[in-house]
Design a protein that fits this description.
CATH architecture of the largest domain: Alpha-Beta Barrel
Oligomer: single chain
Bound molecules: pyridoxal-5'-phosphate
Helix content: 25-40%
Strand order of the largest sheet: 11-14-17-16-15-18-10-1-19-20
Number of domains: 2
Number of helices: 12
Amino acid sequence: MSYTASDQWVEINAEAIIQNLQEVKYILKEQVRLIAVVKANAYGHGAAGTASILESQGVDFFAVTYLPEALKLRKAGIRSDILLLSPLINNTQVMEAVNHDITLTLSSKNDANLINQTALEIRRSVKAHLKIETGLGRFGMGVGEALEICHTLSENPLINLEGIYTHMAEAVSARFSQEQFELFSATIEQLAVSGYSFSLQHCANSAVAILYPHMQMNAVRSGTLLAGQYPAGVQGDMKLRDPFKFKCRVISLKTLKRGSTLGYYRTYRLKSDTRIAVIPAGYIDGLALEVGNQPAGLVDLLKIILKTILAYIGVNRFSKTVLIEGKNYPVRGKVFMQMAMVEISPGEIIAVGDEVEVPVRKTLVPESVPRFYRYKEQVISENELNSDKAALSAGREYA
Ligand SMILES: *Cc1c(COP(=O)(O)O)cnc(C)c1O
């Protein structure tokens, strides 16, 4: 690990991301364009770093939720198309987006009027995708509103309606997915009858792209698979790899007497003299998060209760553990906001400064924690990655 002032960092295996990309490409039908979703800091993997890796491998279209995320990608030198997945609400935002060549989402007449006026004001062309509501209930419009918008905007040569899309509420229910898909397809047809067509038509996220290949249309928006995970409820034989490791260093080590209690509310009592290591990873980093999660059904609830009881009575296998030098050690006491305590078994040679790998919720690791990318023996920081894109392309394996 190269020097970092921080005692906590995230290590991303760039080769794993590249492999995931190949696997995604493999399930896409011919002529289907990939829109790589790198929202929420690329699901924790670092938006700029991840997009740089993907762009070096030929990906030419990205999507994020909010304008600041898109601007961050531009600042990092990403030149590909970037689609904003949420609408903008004022003139200043639209100008900023247009000046950075961001592709906008039109989800209502309001959005359309705003973009229409701004384009005329600054005399710049604007690329946008229409968002159709088919069952998620978040944002988007029906066919009537879409027709009106197309009609209004067709009079403004600065507006390029490049795409049309919708978003699926779930994928596991084939019936509901099919209903959404049919409503979307019918909308596209009705617009076509009135003379409005769109070169990009998309509705599939990762799950839909896998389960219903006919819904890939001519573009797929995928994020979860690139991050190395199957969407919930979906299985398959893709060779996905998790690129993500949260690491930190032991920052304190001491021996506490038998009978001492650990942490707030004194939830853990030592049964013998014990060495305790403090690590700089806490619940803001997504450590021990299950506490705040709503169980997904009764069976899940019972499992959580059982695991909690087993962890409480000290069954190691059910405690949260961290990895030091390839060995598991249990987290003891309540996890702090930015720290946690780890029990070191007797006889283990562990020192302040040793590297610790911590299981965390990837999407919750703050952006302020630096991301480093491992690629063919090199370790590259997120900032360096963009200038090193040439190095990544040189090792390019997919075309
Ligand atoms: C997050 C998101 C996606 C990507 O979904 P995955 O399941 O991660 O592939 C696609 N489209 C929209 C609108 C999204 O918000």
